[in-house]
User: Fold these one by one.
Assistant:
Number 1:
Amino acid sequence: MTKRKWYYALVLLQVLFLATMSASYYAMDIWGKEITLRTEPIDPRDPFYGDYIRLEYEVETIPEDRWKVEEELKEGERVFLILRDSGEGIYELDRATTMWPETEKAVVLQAKYERYDSGSSNYHVDIGLSRNHVQENTGLLLERRETLFVDIVLAPWKQKKISEVK
């Protein structure tokens, strides 16, 4: 192959890679499962970013009795949160583990371990969806509410995104 063909092949691969990344974001709406989580809003305004909300999800605080991890984890290690429907359409934490569950029907959120709080006997993890931009001048309205509900789309390929804050 000549240098020119290699060049075009490389450019084509880069374009295909970027197109696949973009398509996967929108494909989550088609093949993903939508779940609703309970959360609390924190600090909705930043002069550089505009209106956004920082979210602290209920499932990110894990009581000791639901922590099914044998070994001691370091900050940033992967944890899987197995969720169950509360019956009201809102998903709650069933248990946290370091192993992907065998059952295909389980709703699983991948998270990163943060710390253990000995004062409250809770483990803390981060699901990676703690910041969401909102329409201008709506951040303060959302902050005043004690509880928010967030619809999250979970793709079969373990990608996730916020679809709606209500």
Number 2:
Amino acid sequence: VAARAARLPARRVAAAVRAAREDSPSGDDNDDELARRAEMTYADLPSVPGGSVLDCSRAFTVDIPPAIVADALPDRGVLQYVRLPAEEYNVLDSSAVERIDVGTFRVNAGTQKILMWEIEPVGTLRIVPTDNGCEQILLGAVMNDVKARRTGKESVVIRAMNASLKDLTMRNAVSAVAGASGTDGTAIRCQIDVAGTFTEGPFAAAGSQRLCAMLDWCLRSVLPWFLEQLAADYADWASGRARGKRTVNVTQVAGEILAGGKGQLPPGVAESAVERR
């Protein structure tokens, strides 16, 4: 029963979206009808008895070329980089990171359109310094309903997703470690731990096995690409070169992320053993 229920959410919502698109004219004006039909289907989804338990961790390391470390400006080693304040990382748009308290930041991913929903993911992070880097701890995450701001009509799906997100915990430990050469401070290691017990929303309906498998795939896919970006940003920062938002080829990035999910890692990136706390 649990396995069957876990397969239903994505299939039934996707089927409702396809049916609505086939029956309705194209264009942005059709979004409300698509959302209405999909959300009616979503509201009727069964939940897995007892909810879902998530416990998933992955760790990867990227080597920094020795020449980049050797030629770094004073006080610009790998350890200093991984201890940078959150708004000084340049992998994402730094304007999206807002300091709200000492060691606490709000990260806004901007408005994104997924199918017929418009969302604005926002997370609050606490940065805790460690001996060899820092830990980024998720204090809370929410998907703001952008369309509801305009129309006053709240999305059932987005509300349900937020009901799940309130029970999500995440820790990202970023550290300077020894690289393949064995020299300390010549590699960046990143371990992400995600966990939670969910009794509401789609995470609860998915079932523990399906939810853990999905998050594990996400971490395996995204972390190698993310570390590759960190290594490139460190190279610019260490040399004093201008650091700007990089031009992104969406197709290429998607291919690299999917390759990571299949175990095809970028040069210099390797999976590490997870360190249990």
Number 3:
Amino acid sequence: MGVFRAPCHCRNSGRGFLRQGFLGFGNPCRHESNLGDYGLGAKVIAFVNFKGGVGKTANVVNIGAGLAKYHGKRVLIVDLDAQSNSSLWLMQPPEWREHTRSLRKTVYQLFKDQIVGTHLFDMHRAVVRGVPRQRYSLIASLDLLPSVVEMITIEDQIRQIHGVAGYTVLYRALRPIMDAYDYIFLDCPPNLYSVTRNALLAAQYCVVPYIPDYLSLSGFEILVDHVNEFWHRMSGQFTARPKPQFAAFIINHFAKQRNVFETGVNEFELALNQIRPSGKIHPKAVCLKPFVRFNVHVAESTSEHLPVFLHKEDSIGAMDYADLTQNFLHHFESVL
């Protein structure tokens, strides 16, 4: 197993990303006394829930696309899930297969390098710029670091890296490119294993996609406790910055005509108010409005490999996401 080595993260290193490419993992430089804090640069946000089917990838893709298309933000989506849903939503399958044929241009290689001690990952070559594409870029400032099914194997292998270093692989990889983006969205797998834990230590904030029902409520409370317990265990070794904050919650698949949904939302907001004094979530954490209604056009947009805005601009889904993106932006730039 190779030795885990930190990259140079001096102030000017990240500025060369778009011109010169990723600096890679090298020896620690004299500027780095520890991992440091983020300071200026991108807001790194992990979209996390250990339940699948809660709308997580739809939130990542459509809010990310909305921020880039309508608000001029520079957005990078990092697909950390072996299912590669974000990647296949924003890339045509032939384009995805061609790009990921060389695993060096995927998030898989980022982790593999640190497991076996190689230096094959190159952020500059791996990031797909201006997704989605149809002979030309449809959203110039939306970028994607794609995933592959081989990410399944990373969970067991990453345990070969002992201590906190195994959980800071993603954090170290993102630091040199912080100045290149306004937002970096981490689309986590539906579990709380090693890759998701990397996302938690890389992120400043967590967003929880949520479906308002009883099982989701009990799962949410477990999620909050687990993340806080994990941070407590790591905090003695990882002193770079405060713990990632649960900052916002997104209600998906909402159906107002169903009483169970109204009841579920009320119970969830009550649970938030009960948890808030404990410090386990951000004191200003909220359920962002509007709640995202189930809409067939959002589902259709996946097979078109487009955000819902570009698939059906006048649909309920597009309108919900347009309003949600506006409120998301206000929350993360003016409220927190």
